[in-house]
Design a protein that fits this description.
The chain is α+β, with helices and mostly antiparallel strands and 161 residues long. Helices cover 34% and strands 34% of the residues. The strands form two sheets. Strands 1, 2, 4, 5, 6, 7, 9 and 10 form an eight-stranded antiparallel sheet that branches. Strands 3-8 form a two-stranded antiparallel ribbon. The two termini are 14 Å apart. Residues 155-161 have low confidence and may be disordered.
């Protein structure tokens, strides 16, 4: 995976999480995982299409999801209802959307799909044949693990060269 695809997500994650949560997160150790990866108890999945394509998965524990939704809504969340799901999916939407703007500035025009939320224990999400770059973002509300499974289109693989 090209660094030109990774940096926009790191930058967007820092700016969105800082703006939404009021404190700057820290980045954990980045790692590469195979196409089948474990996810958190609550995962937000957004697709990326265009000059860069693939999936972005934001995984977290349910406790972190409750804390983040509470912070975003401005009141305690005691049930993962439609309002909590909307807040959490919007967080993924904001990070991915900001990343698309940064990719566009670098010459990679892309779109995103609406976010999908998946909840449950011991889930495994497959990104088929694209390995996932895992970026842990540690916030005061808990850890969000961002899994990037992205690749450039065949004609764009050497764009930056």
């Amino acid at each position: 995976m090209k660094v030109e695809f990774i940096n926009p997500f790191v930058s967007a994650s820092f700016s969105v999480l800082t703006a939404v949560l009021g404190s700057e997160p820290t980045k954990g150790k980045i790692s590469l995982r195979p196409a089948h990866l474990p996810s958190g108890e609550c995962s937000i999945i957004t697709g990326v299409t265009g000059m860069v394509s693939g999936q972005v998965v934001y995984g977290m524990s349910m406790e972190t999801a409750y804390r983040l939704a509470s912070a975003m809504i401005g009141m305690p969340v005691t049930e993962f209802d439609q309002l909590a799901a909307s807040a959490i999916s919007e967080l993924g939407n904001m990070i991915t959307g900001n990343s698309m703007s940064l990719l566009a500035q670098a010459g990679y025009i892309c779109d995103i799909t609406p976010p999908t939320i998946i909840r449950g224990k011991s889930m495994r999400i497959s990104t088929v044949d694209i390995h996932a770059l895992m970026i842990p973002m540690i916030t005061s509300y808990g850890e969000i693990e961002i899994a990037l499974s992205l690749r450039g289109q065949a004609g764009e693989l050497n764009k930056a060269a």
